[in-house]
Specification:
It is a single chain. With about 260 residues, the protein is α/β, with parallel strands linked by helices. It has ten helices and eight strands. The longest helix is centred in the N-terminal third of the chain and has 21 residues. The chain is globular.
Length: about 260
Amino acid sequence: MSGLKALIFDVDGTLAETERDGHRIAFNQAFADAGLTWHWDVETYGRLLAVTGGKERMLHYWQGLDAEAASGPQARALVAELHRLKTTHYVRLVAEGGIQLRPGVARLLQQAREAGLRLAIATTTTPDNVEALLHATLGSSGMAMFECIGAGDAVPRKKPDPGIYAWVLERMRLAPSQCLAFEDSTNGWKAADAAGLRTVVTTGAYTARDMFPGALAQLDGLGDADHPAQGRVMGQAWSGVVDIPTLREWASPGKPGADAEMA
């Protein structure tokens, strides 16, 4: 019998395509609120996604414009205020129904619950953003579907540091071999991999051309009956629907990355 006990999900780009038409827009609205001339178009934001964490992303961008001002005594306070404004705008956008879960996500979450698998989240986005998305897309019980939510500043360093995954695994008292991670980006995959987790990568709008040579699977989504996912699993071409029996097969004992169960 498979030792798979839990599925751990990233949020932005993995559960939903939030970056281009959610976070980016909210950042630009926050900049306007603060009277800044900053504006992140689709291409610029795509480049900035190499920096994980919203506050970190803004500070990196600012340093490129004016390194002296970005290092000044009030810089971090301004960035924190901009991030607060951005979160307010993002939560509103999500509540208005502007963002939906990626195809197959709601199905897989429900199947996991019915199969007795535990669910968790490991993300760099803020808890408020997570709650807004889950409530808007899964209803009032959305948050309760997940046993553990690692988000925001729960750990000091953002992905690709593995800290957020280690934080989640510790609280769930699970070994990496008992879980599968779901990511969409290079930084996310590196974080999960460094934590010892096998990862199913579902690439999205900003990561479709990226390569993940060490991932358990690299697919264009989770797939549904009418639109099967396409990609590679353990180095082999694959097409189909990612469901619980499939995940149990991929995670079966003896597959690469297995290790001992935690005491």
